[in-house]
Amino acid sequence: MSIQPGMVQAFMVQAFMVLASKGRSRAGGAAFLSGALLLMVLGACGEGPPVLNAVGKYSDVAVITDLTTFNSVAFQLEKVLEADAHTGLRPEPLFNVDVFDVDEAKDARRYKNVIVLGYLKGRDRASSEIKYRLGGEQMRVMDSRNLFMAVREDVYAQNQNVIFLAGNDRSFMANSVLKEGPALRGQIEASNKKRLGIYLYSSGRNEADELAIREQVGHRLSLPVNWRLNAIKSDASGELGAVEVVANKPTRGVAIFWQEVDPATVDMQDHDALLALRRRWGVFLGEGLQDAYGYEWELDMYRREEWPRLSGLYVAGEMAYGGPFRTVFMLDVPGRRLYGINWYVFFPNGAKNEFLREARIVADSFRPRR
User: Fold this and answer.
1) What is the mean pLDDT of residues 5-13?
2) Which of 105, 127, 142, 355 is the most exposed place for a label (fewest CB within 10 A)?
3) What single-letter DSSP state applies at residue 111?
4) String of DSSP letters for 64-76
5) What is the pTM of this model?
6) Residue 146 Rama label (left phi>0; alpha psi -120 to 50; beta)
7) pLDDT (tens digit, 9 = 90+) per residue, 154-178?
8) Could you list the residue range(s) of the whole structural domain that residue 236 is in?
9) Please, which contacts does 223-230 make with residues 24 or more away whose CB atoms are closer than 8 Å?
10) Quick check: is 73 in a domain?
């Protein structure tokens, strides 16, 4: 039997009443010792903050439910979460989902992302767990109207994101999971970015740790509507260096580089224009840098260094070369920063004006996406 909140206090009151009635007799002393031991045991069983840290990757998600009841819904949820709706640089899914029965979920409760699935008013273990953890709080109804959600942090372990999902009808819940997949993925992504930012800020920007954490999170390249990833370019050594993004029609394209560019190698008349581009970055950061997750990173989180090593999506103004263009700043490797932007125009007849190096125009036209 699980110990509910308030049971410990009730036992303590009863024990003290018994001890008081025993007086100072030898039997009372024995009762006092046994009562003290009882209070220690019961006190240890009380609810408190989790002691252990969550383990694994930020991209790992554990789904905990009563598989006898919610088997189909749970695996539908797994399929939806592992589907990457956006074109990405990584071939594997954005999230790796494992499904656990509530009676065998000891290890699952240590994941960095946990989803508990059950009924709103069910009597199975998963539904009882949701009711117990929420303590009578109302759950928020999702857009599909057949799923209810509540989000908590650090429920079973520290540095943990926990989503409670519930509904009234299994078939409606399964259909709603398909519709709510993007919202659930977005919540997990936002939580990952928030916790990652807190970690990077508190760790003093350790480059080795940062690189490892970024690999765990799995950065994704988000593309505008009706655009697609056309090619991934690499140098002679095979190192990933650039991606080519084109419109589906196609009428125009953009080449995005995220390796550091030597100003001496940039084909332009005035090298001061490149410095102006760098100065424009400060304006972007002051207004908040939006990364590929859509998360806003404020400059004051990075007082220890000049630029954050993050990715962002910005929209160029109307250009004489067939704009507007969209360029993605990707920066996955610590120590390397994007100092130059290269693009070309993609014409329907296949002709290309290769990699126009118009840094002065870029510096004057780029603005943060709103």
Assistant:
1) 45
2) 355
3) B
4) EE-HHHHHHHHHH
5) 0.53
6) alpha
7) 999 998 999 999 999 999 999 999 8
8) 224-368
9) 223/86, 223/87, 223/328, 224/313, 224/326, 227/326, 228/87, 229/87, 229/89
10) yes
Q: Three-class SS of residue 19?
A: helix
**Separation CA 103–CA 96 (nearest Å):** 21
Backbone angles phi, psi at 153, to 5 degrees: -115, 145
Report the CATH number that the domain containing residue 128 is assigned in CATH. 3.30.379
Cα-flanking dihedrals φ and ψ of residue 246, to 5°?
-130, 155
Give the pLDDT mean for 62-70.
95
Q: Where are the alpha helices (DSSP H) in the chain?
A: 7-22, 26-44, 67-82, 125-134, 170-202, 207-217, 272-287, 359-365
Task: State whether 196 and 315 are in the same domain.
Answer: no
Which neighbouring-strand residues pair with 357? none
CB of 11 closer than 8 Å to CB of 42: yes
Buried residues in 201-222 as b, exposed as e (16+ CB within 10 A):
eeeeeeeeebeebbeebbbbbb
- CA separation for the pair 152, 138 (Å, rounded): 13
Q: Is 67 exposed, middle or buried (0-12, 13-18, 19+ CB in 10 A)?
A: buried
pLDDT for the residue numbered 56:
86
Q: Which residues contact 225 (CB under 8 A, 6 or more apart)?
A: none
